[in-house]
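Notebook entry, structure prediction.
Reason for the run: the old model in the group folder had no record of what sequence produced it. Starting over properly, with the input documented here first.
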Amino acid sequence: MERLAALEAEVTADAEAQSARKAAATAKLRDQRVTQAAERDQLRARQAELVGRKAAPARDEPRREARDPDDDDRLENLSGALELASKANRVKQELQRAPRKGDKSWIASGVASLALGPLGWLYAGSWREAVPASAAWVLLLALASKIFLLLPVLMVGMPLSAIAGVVYTLQYNRTGHRQRLFGGDKSKPKAKAKQLRGA
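New structure, fully documented this time:
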């Protein structure tokens, strides 16, 4: 009987210990869930502040499981605007920096491309793009002068050509060699291979 009572006491103690461990694990899991929910709410509040919406206190606003698609659109618009502003800032810095030895003038490129069309691209543009575009431009001018459509072509084509000429020059000044504007520069892997062989 004494052995039976001791065995029963041992089983009861084990059951109580398991119950205590289970209760502690459940409490810990509950605390983790509460912490994660609080972090999620703080993140949503920060995102709402970024898009200019005033964040409501967590206790006044019920927790939403489904995300609002308008918030996603606002965040995408904001990230797009920030990226555009960053690119504009880089272009502004590129245009304002002092020219180094060997750099080409983006002003001269823009004026030449505005006055001569794609012929101005020959100043700093990729030969693979500037030469065919110049030939096509000369052919187009020859045809347009015969058909009396020269003025509308010039009004549209010349400003676009000036923008392309400036972009060509900025790329030339950044890398030190001519680069393609359309379709990427396929000469980069060759240049990298030459640099690696030289090293």
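Summary: The chain is about 75% helix and 0% strand.
The old model has been moved to the deprecated folder.
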